[in-house]
Design a protein that fits this description.
Layout lengths: L15 H18 L13 E6 L5 H12 L3 E5 L12 H11 L3 E6 L4 H8 L3 E7 L5 H15 L6 E5 L6 H12 L3 E5 L15 E3 L2 H5 L4 E4 L15 H8 L3 H4 L7 E3 L12 H4 L7 H27 L1
Parallel strand pairs: 1-2, 1-3, 3-4, 5-6, 5-8, 6-7, 8-9
């Protein structure tokens, strides 16, 4: 099986069977990554270009590592010092890329829809590494893989997504994926950080952590995205932690075996208690990082397979 679309731009376009296929393929790459020799040749002879218009440490490193482990020639373009800064348009950049004949293009961009625009203009497979407030598909997939491995399934779970929902592409992609896989999704946060109309997304909305976390199987904390905030969304970080930061007292309302997640980077003592984040009996935050490499390997493998099949 290969992905039906030529690109991976978001979770919205994926069918449940495609999600399951990507997670199953990711599982095989988890096994590979735990071996002494972490190398495959499924992308041998192909060129992967990483274009990050937004700074990122773990996502860019994860994609670079994923490509190299699959045998691709990987090039990182320093977009902060690129021709875009000199006035070149995104379309001009796409035309320049086409002349270089890459096979896989990984793009992170601060504006929603920018990655989709690039995908329309380039002659290669495009993978969205996060665009504005729109989507972050591989983060949702790695979260799903983490949940499935910890819980043994990815359906009929109660998942609480807590914090800055309004500015989070991670939340959007997770809501879409978890909904497609028949899970009960709860959003918890202050009204200023819950998008208007959120109740129409097929989710439950809470403004109280104790109520929202009651009986939850998974507690997914989100980073306060202060760089996307253009006003006073919270009174103070101290007040935010008191009401919405995850600590053991709040977690006690969830199920005893509930797992704790965070996409990173974490603001300890703001979104989550540091000792709880490091508790190997409850936290799967480090597992999320590990799953990220495997999921990105699977996504690029699947896109390359689909590209090869369409060329035949």
């Amino acid at each position: 099986m290969a992905l039906r679309a030529a690109h991976l731009l978001g979770i919205e376009a994926l069918a449940p069977d495609e999600i399951t296929y990507l997670l199953d393929l990711s599982d095989s790459y988890v096994d590979l990554n735990r071996q002494a020799v972490k190398h495959a040749d499924v992308l041998a002879g192909l060129t992967q270009v990483n274009m990050f218009f937004e700074a990122s440490t773990r996502t860019q490193a994860s994609f670079e590592l994923a490509g190299k482990r699959l045998g691709a020639d990987v090039m990182n373009m320093a977009m902060q010092a690129s021709s875009i800064k000199k006035g070149e348009t995104l379309i001009d950049t796409a035309m320049t890329l086409n002349a270089m004949h890459p096979d896989l293009l990984v793009v992170r961009h601060p504006h929603s829809g920018a990655v989709n625009l690039l995908a329309e203009k380039v002659n290669c497979a495009v993978l969205n590494a996060g665009d504005g407030r729109h989507e972050h598909p591989t983060q949702a997939l790695l979260d799903a893989l983490t949940i499935r491995r910890a819980k043994g399934r990815l359906h009929r779970l109660t998942v609480a997504i807590c914090g800055d929902i309004a500015h989070s592409r991670v939340a959007r992609s997770n809501i879409l994926l978890l909904g497609k896989m028949e899970n009960r999704v709860r959003l918890i946060g202050p009204p200023t950080l819950i998008p208007s109309g959120a109740a129409d997304w097929g989710v439950e909305v809470y403004q109280d952590m104790a109520e929202g976390l009651a009986g939850a199987d998974v507690v997914m904390m989100l980073r306060l995205q202060k760089e996307r905030m253009d006003g006073a969304f919270i009174p103070s970080e101290r007040e935010y932690y008191h009401r919405f930061g995850l600590d053991r007292a709040k977690l006690s309302h969830a199920k005893e075996d509930a797992i704790v997640m965070h996409p990173g980077p974490m603001n300890r003592g703001v979104e989550i208690d540091g000792t709880l984040a490091d508790d190997i009996n409850r936290s799967v935050i480090q597992e999320q990082v590990e799953m990220g490499v495997a999921v990105r390997m699977a996504a690029m493998d699947a896109l390359a397979r689909g590209r090869k099949e369409r060329a035949q």
